[in-house]
């Protein structure tokens, strides 16, 4: 039986590649690859039928040299320590690459979330907060939504934590409902950031966005807003998909119209009777730009040789395997890596936190303009680093991020 893939081992391999290219001092590398604190809690939860179940939860705090730990909380039966360790390390690099003053953290509870009632989820969330309350806080560690957690979950965390500390601590979580200090623009942020990365990458190829064809895997939050923005800028969105399959039309789609269809029927498949394609076919379809914005491990050593796009912008986390990465780099495909391409979301989370401290709400356009400004600056920094060191963009993004974290630590000088 093949050994189970360890996301944390993968994260460490990526780190080592970038740290070697940077010629990072061994003791600094040793500090940065280790988590500062990892918390495991066993959470007793009273279920609706009166029984008590114990669920295991985690909060991994990878690094806070540049600011408080930041990262989502995931509820899923597959949540495990290895995954949480990897995700929290990636958060450190993601925040550093877009230069926001946060470190990296991630949490989760292994639980049968799909089969739990709202009341059970609320009790579990509140108990989890009670158990990790000393280790989170607006200046310490700031959770956010992730898989199967949402603004309601954040509202419970905010409320429970505020009761414990005795004041309304809005800055303890981001991704809150607007009524409780959430930021305008958060919903669109990741997709719009992906679209901005597509536009910047296309410019490097001296192409007009209006002459660009884009295939997008997925049609959820990230994929939809990326498609909507690209369509507005005049790009041709030639393919989109969901878990039931995809659609392809070389003349392009109006994503708003397709979304109306999906909301009525539950899938994009069948839209105006255009050509149906599989998700596998979408990844190797005829297009200038491919945006995987659904799941991890989609572009592999099997399909990478057939990818026709010249540019890949990773909306999803981890859609390209390391083997595929090498194949695509050799083919000359320009990849905008996930820690840069989908960082619009965490950037607006940072703006939410800033607004909570300012006690002032920015309007939506201000939020989105500032997000785009940060992302475009990061895009240019990564591109320059890749050229300077003659490395792929993923390694360049990590080098940039690791150097920023290492520099912060060296300046503090605490050995
Ligand atoms: P979502 O749940 O809104 O959408 C997921 C989409 O993927 C849906 O359209 C679903 O139909 C589709 N899908 C599911 N299985 C599929 C399959 N086998 N083939 C093709 N499509 C399939 O999720 P989202 O928030 O859009 O997140 C998508 C990805 O982006 C995830 O990897 C997530 O971690 C990453 N991400 C999201 C954000 C954010 O702000 N939402 C931020 C950073 C990264």
Coarse morphology: globular
State the low-pLDDT regions, or none.
Answer: none
Bound molecules: nicotinamide-adenine-dinucleotide
Terminal Cα span: 43 Å
Please give the largest β-sheet: 7 strands, mixed
Structural class: alpha/beta
The CATH class designation of the largest domain is: Alpha Beta
The helix-strand sequence is HHEEEHEHEHHEHEEHEHEEHEHHHH
Helical percent range? 40-55%
Percentage beta strand: 15-25%
On the 0 to 100 scale, the average pLDDT is 96
Q: So, CATH architecture of the largest domain?
A: 3-Layer(aba) Sandwich
Per DSSP, the total helix count is 14
List the strand order in the largest sheet: 9-8-7-6-10-11-12
